[in-house]
Amino acid sequence: MPDEGSNIQKDLNPLANAERQFEEAAARLNLPQGIKEVIKRPRRATIVSLPVQMDDGSLRVFTGYRVQHSIVRGPAKGGIRYHPDVTLDEVGALAAWMTWKCAVVNIPFGGGKGGVICDPTKMSKGELERLTRRYAADLSDLFGPESDVPAPDVNTNEQVMAWIVDTYSMHERRTEYAVVTGKPLEVGGSAGRREATGRGVLLCVREACQHLAIPIAGATVAVQGFGNVGSVSADLLTRDGAKIVAVSDVTGGVHDRAGLDVPALLKWAADHRGVAGFPGGKPLTTPIVEYDCGILIPAALENQITRENAGRIHARIIAEGANGPTTPDADKILEEKGVFVIPDILCNSGGVTVSYFEWVQNRMGFYWPEAEVNGRLEQTMVAAFRDVLAKAMEHGVNMRVAAFMVAIERVVKVIMLRGVYA
């Protein structure tokens, strides 16, 4: 009989969680076993050893990954993360999530993900550039506008994408901006891209509040993670009249039941590299996911809401700004409590949607103003939310199961139409 510790560890395995989420939705679709196996397995997983010359002249070898889960609906799409805890399982799970994320918002991409085991906080800019260029060069046979299009993820940014553009372009002997998205505006980036994921969270929260007849003006919001997604979500929700009552990041947390001054908090966090010590709020002494609020936005890393703490959640709505913040066992508890969870593959898909817009603009060489990008994003996100909500109500399932059902159906339909090459 397995012990409690092993059960908890299994609950926190990202690949196992992705498979459980897939299986629950797939079981309701009565898929042929062969088709289920096709869409369940990643099509390609690549491991590369990356020798990099460090600033002190020594050579260090890093391990990098790139997993392509599916390309049946279009090029593989997914970010690259730099983190000491990157694993092949994690990258594989995130690649699968990208397949479903792109399908649920109905954009013509498949799913991919990449990562390098490193600690970028202990590396110079020059070391990071050399690591990035080596990674891009070693995977240049995979990357390409019509095959695999990376983007920023944890600890990577616009500058990293610009280095990949340059490296790939040098190998191809032509400038190719469409090889990655999330680039600086000067290197083929799209207006509105930086705010896109947070804006998508806002749009989903709006739709959820409308569905549940909850006024967004005056709603209390707690935000876990105050990076790009969390900070933009907080800022935009404040403009809609919501009250941000608690915020946390790796440095600590602050709260104020009357509502935090978000513009002042944004400036403090930028100046002090974190929210800890913000004079406009009190130090947060309880886990933020358990904070008493109407709307919770987990916008940090995976596995933040588990069966250990799900019973202590107070929020009526959870809007998943992060990938995989809620484990399958926690989902069951939240559903029993009546918590309305907007799943990650829908809620945080604003970023990949505008990445698609960026890729389109790169390929046609014509760029849209920010208002047009935001308008197209709203149209796409609202349609996706309503598709998922309709599926949930039709089948009597929660929004996560419904989102996976919508996504799987779209991928399967393309496979059936294209057939299997043999």
UniProtKB/TrEMBL annotation:
Residue stretches making up the Glutamate/phenylalanine/leucine/valine/L-tryptophan dehydrogenase C-terminal domain: 190-419
Binding site for substrate: 77, 101, 355
Keywords: NAD, Nucleotide-binding, Oxidoreductase
Keyword Ligase listed: no
Entry binding sites for NAD(+): 197, 228
A single BP term in Gene Ontology: L-glutamate catabolic process
Active-site residues (renumbered): 113 (proton donor)
Keyword Oxidoreductase recorded: yes
MF (Gene Ontology): glutamate dehydrogenase (NAD+) activity; nucleotide binding
InterPro entries with a match to the protein in the record: Aminoacid_DH-like_N_sf, Glu/Leu/Phe/Val/Trp_DH, Glu/Leu/Phe/Val/Trp_DH_C, Glu/Leu/Phe/Val/Trp_DH_dimer, Glu/Leu/Phe/Val_DH_AS, Glu_DH, NAD(P)-bd_dom_sf, NAD_bind_Glu_DH
Marked site: Important for catalysis: 153
Pfam families xref list: ELFV_dehydrog, ELFV_dehydrog_N
PANTHER family with a match to the protein in the record: GLUTAMATE DEHYDROGENASE, GLUTAMATE DEHYDROGENASE 1, MITOCHONDRIAL
Family in the record: Belongs to the Glu/Leu/Phe/Val dehydrogenases family.
Record-given protein name: Glutamate dehydrogenase
